[in-house]
Amino acid sequence: MRKLLLSQNKKKKRKKQQLYLAETKESKFYMALLISWRPSASNISSLPFIVKKASPKSAKMGVFNNNISCSVTSTMAGQSQRKLPILLFDVMDTIVRDPFYNEIPAFFRMPMKELLECKHPTTWIEFEKGLITEDECARRFFKDGRPFDLEGLKNCMRRAYTYIEGVEGLLNSLKENGYEIHAFTNYPIWYQMIEDKLQLSNYLSWTFCSCVFGKRKPDPDFYLEVVKHLNVEASNCIFVDDRMRNVEAAVEVGLNGLQFKNADLLRKDLSLLGVNISTNENPDLAGCSS
């Protein structure tokens, strides 16, 4: 009986030794595979233990109104796919010629001074904020409620909408360089007429129109809402407008501001702020004004 038990114990020990040797060989085999394997370059970024170090912010110095220094951030950690700065353009008399000063007085057959005296003081502002319809605007356009040909006025404006000389070429250059461009304009729903004729959406997004947001420049809340919507620091935006009052309001909330005078000066001002403007633009657009 004792011999039988000893024999069984020896068999059990032998099996344990064999199992241990097998597991050891298997472990060495997988260890050899692990040591010999090297990840390819395409796999490195997907490994959980590889930590990418974010690139630090870099800034370029520029100017505001030729005298005031400002900083424009060109890269931002966590937003490597979004090229900065973001460009915000007023539309009327910055990109597109405004018919209000010439064509509209001519349509009504009265000088500008008389037109300003006759028109209702708040109707157009309410129309720009989207608070009233175009039919309501037509009924209230004049203080005395006189009727006029609304469709005739709209056709007059359509004919007058043209690009300001050199601006379309500049927008095209900015687009080719990958900049994010948004319209930031005080205008009623008639901005759609501008789009239908000039196709501004080839270069920018009609993102910030007063008739959609119910606010007008230079209301600070409008600027702050723009920055919030874009989800960037105000200092990462450049705002361009022909009206100095609107530019000053932008600077007060932290944006970089440029007053538009003509396309050539704007090109230089943007370059001073670190904006890369290609010189290989479409020659058909370089001096285009319509």
What does this structure look like?
This is Flavin mononucleotide hydrolase 1, chloroplatic-like. The chain has 290 residues and is an alpha/beta fold. The protein contains 14 helices and seven strands. It has helices spanning 2-36, 41-44, 103-108, 112-118, 123-128, 134-140, 150-160, 167-176, 191-198, 210-213, 220-230, 244-252, 263-272, 283-286, and strands spanning 58-64, 68-75, 86-89, 181-185, 205-209, 237-241, 256-259. The relative contact order is 0.14.
Number of strands: 7
Strand order of the largest sheet: 5-4-3-6-7
Structural class: alpha/beta
End-to-end C-alpha gap: 112 Å
Rounded to an integer in angstroms, the radius of gyration calculated over CA atoms is: 33 Å
How many helix segments? 14
Mean pLDDT: 80
Task: Give the percentage of residues in beta strands.
Answer: 5-15%
Low-confidence stretches: 24-63, 65-79
Largest sheet: 5 strands, parallel
Q: Roughly how much helix do the residues carry, as a percent range?
A: 40-55%
Listing every helix as H and every strand as E from the N terminus to the C terminus, the arrangement reads HHEEEHHHHHHEHEHHEHEHH
The shape, in one word, is globular
